[in-house]
Design goal:
Length: 157
């Protein structure tokens, strides 16, 4: 049995220890916002946060997660109010949408450690692939999310 926390809720999975986190989330927890793309760590469609850092859930065995805190797209905010979600909506980033939850989670992780990323930082951090070609809008939305976060910080004083 493997125990950790998903979106603030304790979970325990009676699955083989080498079960990829992606399938525990999708099949056992019905958190289907995290997508399967390549299954090989390349595309980033399956990106979730583990203790705040982005991981490819298709390659992460649940045995490695004992005691960690996992966040999926469903847990990023309760009401789409995370600055990344606000920016994504404002700039209408998605096309087909398949890659987008992974993109958003990778963007949220970047802004957590670098609240004012430049374009080079974004290109280095966001290795996710979008077959629809939304990459330019993704980059613009991350810069916009950084502005929203800065404005929120200024309001809080
Ligand atoms: S499905 Fe995990 S990186 Fe592509
Ligand atoms: S929006 Fe279609 S794959 Fe990215």
């Amino acid at each position: 049995m493997t125990r950790f926390t998903v979106n603030g809720n304790p979970v325990q999975y009676e699955l083989a220890p080498d079960t990829p986190l992606l399938w525990a989330l999708r099949d056992a927890s019905n958190l289907t916002g995290t997508k399967y793309g390549c299954g090989a760590g390349l595309c980033g469609a399956c990106t979730v946060l583990v203790d705040g850092a982005p991981v490819r859930s298709c390659l992460t065995p649940i045995a490695d997660l004992e005691g960690t805190f996992v966040t999926t797209i469903e847990g990023l905010s309760e009401d789409r109010s995370h600055p990344v979600q606000q920016a994504w909506i404002e700039l209408q980033v998605p096309q087909c949408g398949y890659c987008q939850s992974g993109m958003i989670m990778a963007a949220a992780a970047l802004l957590r450690t670098n609240p004012r990323p430049g374009r080079a930082d974004i290109e280095a951090a966001i290795t996710n692939i979008c077959r629809c070609g939304t990459t330019a809008r993704v980059e613009a939305a991350i810069l916009r999310a950084a502005d929203i976060m800065a404005r929120n910080r200024a309001r809080r004083g």
